[in-house]
Amino acid sequence: MEHEAAGLLSPLGVWLEGTAASAAIRRSLWAYPLASVLHVLGVGLLLGPILALDLRLLGFARALPARPLARLLVPMAATGVAIQVPTGAVMLLADAAALLAHPLMLAKLALVALALANIVLVHRAAEPGFVALDGPIPAAVRRGALVSLLAWPAIAILGRAIAYV
């Protein structure tokens, strides 16, 4: 079953590898290594802040006010995501056919989609400016924090595992 699902995106991978952007990345001495280093930096900028915030939203460190913490940590995490998306695209383009046929990559992409949708839902539940975080943390925000706490580290683990499995 995993291989059938992986096969669905194989034609897209082959097509992507035929693009000028893919060829340019493969020819470049620095494109892939630079994207890889920046991607790791993006992981750090995302995981540290978002996991700290998720834990606070789940009830840990209640002495820290949730709203100011969110206002501090969310932009850091967003910067991490903003770095990871284009750098991930560069790395994908370098070997798209193989990566889009890899079951772990498909799982990673599915989790990324879930995690990004979760961000939208949590931000809606937290209300503009995170005002809903001034009082008791709404259940929808707590559920979103749990999804985030599980999804983002799993995405990082899958990303690393692709190289070894």
Blueprint (SSEs and pairs):
Elements: H1 2-17, H2 20-27, H3 31-57, H4 66-94, H5 96-99, H6 103-126, H7 139-161
Helix pairs in contact: 2-4, 3-4, 3-7, 6-7
- Whole-Å distance between the termini? 17 Å
Relative helix content:
over 70%
Number of domains: 1
Largest sheet: none
Tally of DSSP helical segments: 7
- Please mark out the parts with pLDDT under 50 across 5 or more consecutive residues, or reply none: none
Average pLDDT, to the nearest integer? 94
Structural class: mainly alpha
Protein architecture, described:
- There is one protein chain.
- This protein is mostly helical.
- The protein has one domain (2-161).
- The chain is 79% helix and 0% strand.
- Helix 3 runs antiparallel to helix 4 (66-94), helix 3 (31-57) runs antiparallel to helix 7 and helix 6 (103-126) packs antiparallel against helix 7.
- The longest helix has 29 residues, at 66-94.
- The chain is elongated, with a radius of gyration of 18 Å.
Précis, in short:
The protein is mainly alpha-helical and 165 residues long.
What would the keywords be for this entry?
165 residues; mainly alpha; 0% strand
